[in-house]
Amino acid sequence: MKQPLLIVTLFLGLCSMAYAQEEENTLSLSLEEARQYAVQHNKTLQNASLDVQIAEANRWQTISTMLPQVSASYDYSNMCGYEMEMMGMKIAMPPYGTLGMTASVALTGAQIVGLQMQKIALNMSEISLKKNEQDIRSSVTTIYMSILAMESTVDLLDQNLENLKKLHEMTAKAVTIGVAEQTSADQLLVQVATMETSINSTKRSLEMLYNSLILQLGCKVNTKLVLTDKVDNLLNVEETMNLLNTQFDLENNYNYQLLNKNLELSKKQVLAEEVAFAPTISAFYQYSNKHYFSDEKTMDMTPPNVVGASVSIPLWKSWQRMSNIKEAKISYNKTANTLETSKDGLLVQDKQLRYNLTSAYETYQTQESNLDVTKRVFENISIKFEHGAASSMEVTNASTNLVAAQSSYINAMLQLITAKVELEVLLNK
Fold first, then answer.
1. pTM (2 decimals)?
2. What CATH topology corresponds to 28-76+93-427?
3. Cβ contacts of residue 280 below 8 Å, gap of 6+?
């Protein structure tokens, strides 16, 4: 009795471990939870965050060059009993040690402008981080909604398949008793096989979407995702169309902000070339304490404290500096032109995306009505076929039209979602 009991216990333990492992690899997420998860775990976004830290570190490196630099040293010297003779007198050179400390500071125009440029670079990194977060959130939204729409497609196709199978079974029975032709049953059987193929193809596409969402979320590859939201709850048409009432603010767009910062950086580059003519100011303090390891008298000419300052002015370096300034000004003008062109492009994009949203909404309404009508037509023909008032060809055509209408409706839904997300990104909503 002990051996079977032990086997059952081990089996139950293994089943429990397998169930716990499955639970651990399952991730249930609503749309907002999926966005937040991606923001926290997406590797691309993590790299963007690291870029901000690198920009901050570079800024402090520039600041450190403007702060006093302090160094300390200790030297030991031994002349091995040598005596220096001066004016008939011998001066002992005993061994000694020197403790030295030096503090210096140098300030140039290039350091000041460089610090300003590092600040702009830091701001650009922060804006890029926000833009990457926005892109990740919009990408997760699009994929999440696409999965829900694709799952709705599978449900619709499953319903169609079930209806076709029922019609085929009924027709096969009618053939058996001699009230229907075999060709009618064969046509419906082909329609059933075609529907099964469409379902399998849709499920493979659905699997690809799940894989894409896993990559965006930054979770493990073997994670099983469970989407808890429903497409009908997320597709708020009224809220979507209210986006058309939102004014486009260029200053609120991350792309425009980056272009503006790039223009500022280009302008500072011109200033950095101009300050090459500015003087360099430096100062230092040096402390020296010499200790002799002997009682012999000797002459010490090293002052314990030394203070100094200098001003260095660049006078002539051919035409290189002037050429650098000219080149920097040309680059600034190019950047300014790019900003104006991009500004016009964003304004045109705003108009185009609003047109796309309006067009997608109209298409969605049309396809929604078309799906309703096509579904009622298929149901009507199916009833007529059951009573012998419609042919199998009419059922096949009605089924094909229904599948096409369902596909068009799902595509219209996805186009509406895509148009909404694209406009939200532009408006930074």
1. 0.78
2. Outer membrane efflux proteins (OEP) (1.20.1600)
3. 106, 107, 108, 311, 312, 313
